[in-house]
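Following up on my earlier thread - several people asked me to post the actual chain instead of describing it. Fair enough. Here it is, all 673 residues.
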Amino acid sequence: IRPALTMAALVITGPSTLAQRRGTFAKGHASGARLARAARLASTPRTRPESTRASASGGTTIGADEMAKDASSAEPLIGINPDRVPMVEAVNRGETSGKFNWTKQWYPVAVIDLLDTSKPHPTQLLGKDIVVWKDGAGKWNVFEDKCPHRLAPLSEGRVEDDGTLLCAYHAWRFDGDGKCTDMPQASSKEEEDRVRANPRSCAFTRPCMEAQGLVWAWGEGGKEAELEARMTPPLLVPEIEGVGKNGEAPGGAYRNHWQVRDMPYGWAAFFENAIDPAHAVVSHHTLVGSRYDDPAGFNCVVERPMTAEAGFRCAVDPAVPPFNTIGKYDAETSYDFQPPCLLKIDWRHEEARFLTSHYCVPTRPGWCRHFVATVCQRGEGEKVRRHRWFKLNLFTLTSPAWMTHVLGPTFLHQDMVLLHQQEKIIARGDGQDIANRWKDEVFIPTSADKMTVMFYQWFGRNGPIPWDGRDGDAMPPIERDQSKLFDTWEMHTKYCTHCQGALRNTEALKVIAAAAAAGKAVWATCLLAFGASAAGAAAGAGVTPSLGDVIAAVDPSLVGEVFSALSLAGTAYGLHGFAGMFRSYPFSHAEEDIVMEGTAKIGLSNDGPSLYIDVVDNLLFGGNKHAGKKCAVGCECGKCSPFHDGIRSKPLDAFRKKQESARAAKEAGTPAR
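Reply from S.P.:
Thanks for posting it. Predicted structure:
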């Protein structure tokens, strides 16, 4: 028996006018879907709050009172890691400036499990080139990517057998603390000791740490950086604490493999997109839903009010597809933005919970580095197995890292092809003013965009990002070369040891399959020649054997050999295509995608039963093997969080009660209290 996650089943909520509908993924049914959607919208009252004002000239039409009307139900600490509560409370009490400081923050820069320990790894942070490497003591370090001697890039150097980082220009060596340990150009030992004692001989180090499988770097260097970094807790996720090699976390939860990828659009574009529930079933058509059947209206209810240090948190009311089926709202979903780089999407069902943690790191203008991992916590019951959100996320828990990584672009490139151009259309060359340009350029007529508006409000007050690097703050132009835009090798594979290994194995299997196919084809040709020769000998000299005689004389195994040759050739071709996904994955919304259509066909992207999910769910969570285990400290599940009663969000519940009270008072003709 599984330990129960909830104290009570969630009452089904949602607009009664939204009838439950069966989804379709076939393009040919689009017209029928549009008719069904039109009928549903026609039967649904379409009212707009008085504070919402349409504007023909663009810009948000959600007024300030609309943005703040549910803040009275919000909780200022919901979703905050306990380690960061004192800092957030100090800001809320007005004891600090309240201005967000981008450089005095922790940022994840690499996934430890994916790195080659024998090499230095270049990346960027806030426009600065940095290098990540592991020293002889087994500690990961982060330096600015320049040697103090002549400023050559240390990322082009080597990690030597003695655990030092060697600059490939003049062979200066540095230990994990940044101290120069060898300077071969010195004329004597005394001169070397004297020069190495000079602080200017040291590498430009950054405070760094290892936590939850990631290497973290502080946003700046300098004399005070180490002390400030020690006083500032990073944006860790309590549910991920204590995850072992097999993915098991405290309390019987499971976490999938970290994914990381460099994306050719900026930090703001990522969060604008990721914090927007409405785009999911449209942009990710067939993968998580249907662009024709699943779009629906909803409210965004503030669960944590906006502050500089803590960001904000909102619940989706109701949690529309892909989080539920329209008309059957038995799960809740919250979006939690915590600056500078964390977004948690918290899906809670009475039988299970999925917490997806996205980190988006601003690397350079027009680019970001995206990290994501998901934790599943499981209670009793089997109804949740029919949920598409449960099925899609559970699939990633049991997939090997390389499989999760190589399939990542099937999801991420659906957004990327839009976001890469969108931010540049808005910025018009001035990426530093994108928050102000955004609110003036776009048209926001519905409350479904409320979280995106809140995000740009936060960014407008606390931005822009203080870029500091060789590229300046200029937004790059739109990339028209698709081979560069969809280059998965540069964005991921080249620094992922899992994917490099899988690519080598795939290429080897391709060669073996192609060679075997060629061998089978040669042997089939020989069998055919032997048969023709035997038929000719039987017919006698000067007589040409008939086709029937040749077929009769051919060895019966020829059919099997031909089939084997074709099968092996097809396998080699398929492996060639699969290997190509490690290098490039072009995508266009105007064309059908075989991988995404396949996801729909096997039933992962729509609600309903799945034998595969039944087996995986029993394998991970079946029986009582996790009973009695404690959750991680600070966990937000129904048993641990003071803000959730079972799986119900207390701020969301308070908001709904306030709405019901207002409606009842209006019907009775009395003022609401």
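The mean pLDDT is 84. That should answer part of your original question.
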